[in-house]
Amino acid sequence: MRRGSVLAAVLAAILALATPSAWSATLSPNVIVVLADDLGPGDLSGFRGQTVPTPNLDRMAKEGIRFTRYYSASPICSASRCGLLTGQFPARWRITSYLQTRAGNRACEQADVLDPKAPTLPGFLKAAGYATAHIGKWHLGGGRDVVDPPRFAAYGYDHGLGTWESPEPHPDITARDWIWSAVDPVKRWDRTRWMVDRTLDFLREHPDRPCFVNLWLDDTHTPWVPSADDQKLGKNGRASGRDETPDRLRRVVIEMDRQIGRLLDRIRSRPSARPTIVLFLSDNGPLPTFGGARTLGLRGSKLSLYEGGVRLPLIVWGPGIVPEGSTDESSVIGAVDLFPTICRICGADLPASYRSDGEDRSEPLLGRPSPRRRPLFWEYGRNDRSFAYPSGADRSPNLAVLDGDWKLLVNADGSQTVLYQVGRDPRETQNLAHEEPAISGRLREAVLNWRRSVP
Q: What values do phi and psi take at 312, rounded to 5?
């Protein structure tokens, strides 16, 4: 029996024990990955955030599993998305920052697009019989002066609806040559509803096949524009937000939460249909942090390798598949783990030639916490000219490694070594590099060797 068939049979056995009798345990599940933009754990009330009520995401967590030790692949968008899509550290594909103009990409020592030869999660799932779609922000090639990037089909998608920085920007949300404008048929404050509707359309159009959808939202990225009164008009119909205030963020997050509630309600309303797993997560840390409120006091932010830049909310929901009502505070899960994990749950074969930088974490996603075996590595900031950084103590060294509860940060030239035991000290306040020289030396050598191994 092929390995994929064996894995599908294992999942079927799990479903047979766990699902309502109205569901067929032999059906491969739909999978929807909802990726919010620049969202911190403090933006969600279910993660003990104090400023924004998110009742639908809170209910999602109560009906599923809330993870508090999920890590993105980078503290910035394009690199983070590359790691999630390929299951490999983004530097392997020469993506080290956000993709921008060709000149800006050269200054960051990076490619202009994600290489279509890269392995992708939708590509592997499509080969296993899934219908695949990308809906929303892409930012892995296209826009500015990067013309004729590979189309969505090159990455394994049957259907692609992108924002401006994509190979196929949809005219409803990109009426002008910019990320958004005041003349877009679908206004910025209504984009999430539009994206959720397109996701529901895709599921409805493929009743006889399992579906995989990357639903990548962009409304929680600045500028925050919750209504027409909150936008400023500019040249050629371009628009921008007004002041970035907690109130404007609050209203944007409330609307995002409302639309996620619509998505889940529609899935709940079809109990006899194919089982569905929904993952809700963020691409990188928030900025501004409003005094650390958006990171729950974790040090750092977007553009930083401290916890506030890469430690993010993750909720996994799947009635009948994912156990209800638990919080996993021990299982470390990285964005690069989601590729092999989702393939395992969906019964998709991983070719012998594929080498993930992550590992199969299906056990914690199905409700069985477990330690990870492999370290996670990060890089951000190859020079001081082309990379942006947060100010003051939030600026981190440009390399990091996490191994168990130990996290070491160091610059690529070997300077500024710091070591934290983040299981006990998640706010990274006590540097233990001198007190733990053996651990510090081992991790320092590991991360410097890793950096030398990538382009």
A: -135, 165
Q: What is the pLDDT of residues 380-437, one digit of tens each?
A: 999 999 999 999 999 999 999 999 999 999 999 999 999 999 999 999 999 999 999 9
> Which H or E run contains 327?
strand 326-328
Say if residue 223 is preceded by a cis peptide, omega within 30 of 0: yes
8-12, Cβ contacts within 8 angstroms, sequence gap of 24 or more:
8/346, 8/347, 11/345, 11/346, 11/347
Per-residue pLDDT tens over the stretch 127-161: 999 999 999 999 999 999 999 999 999 999 999 99
CA torsion sign, 346 to 349 to 354 to 355? positive
pLDDT of residue 16: 42
Look-up: residue for tokens 């933009």? 37
Crossing angle between the packed helical segments 338-346 and 77-86, to the nearest 10 degrees: 40
Structure tokens at 48: 């003990």
Cα distances (angstroms) measured from residue 7 to each of 1, 11, 126, 366, 448: 10, 6, 16, 14, 37
The pLDDT, as a whole number, for residue 21 is 32
Where in the chain are all domains bearing CATH 3.40.720.10? 3-375
- Looking at the chain, the domain(s) classified CATH 3.30.1120.10 span 397-453
CATH architecture, range 397-453: 2-Layer Sandwich (3.30)
Q: What is the pTM of this model?
A: 0.94
3-state secondary structure of 15: helix
Q: What is the DSSP letter of 401?
A: E
Residues ≥6 apart with Cβ < 8 Å to 310: 71, 72, 74, 75, 284, 285, 300, 378, 400
Q: Per residue in 70-87, pLDDT tens?
A: 999 999 999 999 999 999
User: How far is the C-alpha of 357 from the C-alpha of 355, rounded, in Å?
Assistant: 7
27 confidence band (pLDDT: 50, 70, 90): confident
Give the chain's largest Cα–Cα span: 61
Helix, coil or strand: residue 37 = coil
Please tell me the class of the 3-375 domain: alpha beta
Q: How far apart are CA 436 and CA 165, in angstroms?
A: 45
